[in-house]
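Thread amino acids onto this structure.
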């Protein structure tokens, strides 16, 4: 039973990372326009950097490397550069929040909405091993048999990983199932004190709020 649960968790994590990497590849492709590369070239690189880069790369590769140029100019990773550059070109708030969240999850790097910790982050603590959720050091929820409450634990795990923001995106892979999520949150809220969890945007968002 434990082995199956662990294997399922590993599989879900792999799927989550694959979805994140695919999203990064897709958004990097959006930036593959010579006009964007030219703007990054002129706006973000110094004269010395442009001279050095020209000596190392052909003109044809330059036209395809807006993200690479931006990453080099700012001394950041290709993944972070993809997110930041797309944000400058009207990436939606939902896409931006999602990519920032996944970047933080897989690398621990904070950007965008994760740059500043939530004011309430230090008040909460969720311990999967004991199944205990605490607020200000006091137990507000006990999840019995965590291995049999995987969906509840997954939600609490993500809130814990992300320092207890006011909202997270649906952490379950695939197309959101609003009714299933509502049932999970109903079970999570049962016996819970001080806060409540609710969903919005057809199951895409989970909020936590004080009561």
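Threaded sequence (211 positions):
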């Amino acid at each position: 039973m434990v082995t199956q649960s662990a294997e399922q968790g590993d599989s879900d994590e792999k799927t989550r990372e694959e979805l994140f990497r695919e999203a990064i590849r897709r958004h990097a492709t959006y930036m593959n326009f010579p006009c964007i590369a030219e703007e990054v070239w002129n706006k973000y690189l110094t004269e010395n950097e442009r001279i050095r880069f020209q000596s190392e790369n052909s003109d044809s590769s330059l036209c395809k490397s807006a993200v690479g140029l931006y990453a080099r100019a700012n001394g950041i990773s290709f993944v972070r550069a993809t997110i930041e550059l797309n944000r400058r070109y009207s990436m939606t708030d939902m896409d931006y929040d999602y990519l920032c969240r996944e970047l933080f999850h897989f690398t621990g790097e904070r950007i965008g909405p994760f740059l500043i910790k939530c004011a309430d982050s230090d008040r909460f603590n969720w311990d999967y091993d004991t199944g205990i959720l605490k607020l200000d050091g006091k137990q507000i929820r006990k999840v019995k048999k965590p291995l049999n409450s995987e969906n509840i634990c997954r939600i609490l795990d993500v809130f814990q990983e992300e320092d207890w923001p006011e909202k997270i995106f649906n952490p379950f892979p695939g197309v959101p199932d609003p009714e299933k999520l509502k049932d999970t949150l109903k079970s999570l809220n049962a016996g819970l004190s001080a806060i409540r969890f609710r969903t919005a945007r057809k199951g895409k968002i989970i909020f936590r709020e004080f009561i």
